[in-house]
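step=encode ok
step=design start
structure_in=
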């Protein structure tokens, strides 16, 4: 039999790894001296040791290792799932390296123009959507969230038109934290209207809120969809960050509840976004 040091040398596994695999029951020594607690191994254990070495080198989670070692029939499928996750992670890392290179090269610099304007009092109606939050959303989750937002805008528009209070301008949206949840946010999909909404106004199968945006001074940043803008995965649009920085530069507190994204329309088509935040301290 071999000492743990000899076995480690021959298999390429560290002493720490061998002790961990012993504790996890993945590769227990042939014998353990009752007094010195020295572990001893046999050459017949090389096969398991080398499999463990390769599995860990491939980044297979330790929790999946027992199943892979014990059930060869399902090992291929489990490894295929793990491989797809690793490939996706590598692609994500490659994208991050590319963006980082562009950032270090100064390609993120953009002269965002922050304008001031006096907004008029405006009635509104909005549907409330609960949205997933986080920078690990899948493409399908993002697409589904966009579809739900578009459906919410459309359903609300139809309901407003039916009562003779059709929207009077471009749509806007805002986000807020979902009470009692750290993993979800609420998106308000809103239309401006000419008249206050009657009590009991509703949209089938939708949560609806109504209100009034009071007259106030606003800071505005605009961007058009065709503008080349460097986006950071999971982060807010650079125009939003520039607007909030401008608020702080003016010595004002950043209140995200006052932040709205308004559709920039031309000839009935959405061509960009206005990011707006009220800065009048009297606005509630």
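sequence_out=
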């Amino acid at each position: 039999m071999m000492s743990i040091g000899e076995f480690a040398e021959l298999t390429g596994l560290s002493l720490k790894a061998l002790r961990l695999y012993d504790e996890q029951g993945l590769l227990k020594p042939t014998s353990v001296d009752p007094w010195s607690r020295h572990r001893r191994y046999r050459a017949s254990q090389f096969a398991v040791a080398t499999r463990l070495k390769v599995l860990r080198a491939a980044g297979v989670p330790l929790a999946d290792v027992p199943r892979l070692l014990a059930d060869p029939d399902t090992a291929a499928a489990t490894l295929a799932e793990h491989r797809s996750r690793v490939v996706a992670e590598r692609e994500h890392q490659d994208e991050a390296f590319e963006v980082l290179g562009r950032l270090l090269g100064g390609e993120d610099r953009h002269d965002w123009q922050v304008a001031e304007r006096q907004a008029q009092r405006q009635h509104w109606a909005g549907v409330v959507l609960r949205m997933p939050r986080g920078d690990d959303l899948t493409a399908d989750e993002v697409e589904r969230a966009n579809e739900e937002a578009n459906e919410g805008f459309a359903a609300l528009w139809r309901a407003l038109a039916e009562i003779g209070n059709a929207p009077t301008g471009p749509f806007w949206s805002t986000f807020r934290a979902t009470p009692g949840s750290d993993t979800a946010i609420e998106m308000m999909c809103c239309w401006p209207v000419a008249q206050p909404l009657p009590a009991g106004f509703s949209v089938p199968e939708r949560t609806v809120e109504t209100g009034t945006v009071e007259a106030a001074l606003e800071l505005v940043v605009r961007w058009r969809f065709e503008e080349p803008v460097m986006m950071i995965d999971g982060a807010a649009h650079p125009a939003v960050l520039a607007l909030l920085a401008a608020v702080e530069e003016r010595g004002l507190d950043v209140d995200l509840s006052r932040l709205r994204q308004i559709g920039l329309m031309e000839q009935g088509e959405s061509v960009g976004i206005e990011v707006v935040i009220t800065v009048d301290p009297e606005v509630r």
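step=design ok
step=annotate ok -> Helices lie at 4-11, 15-24, 46-57, 65-70, 72-104, 139-162, 238-249.
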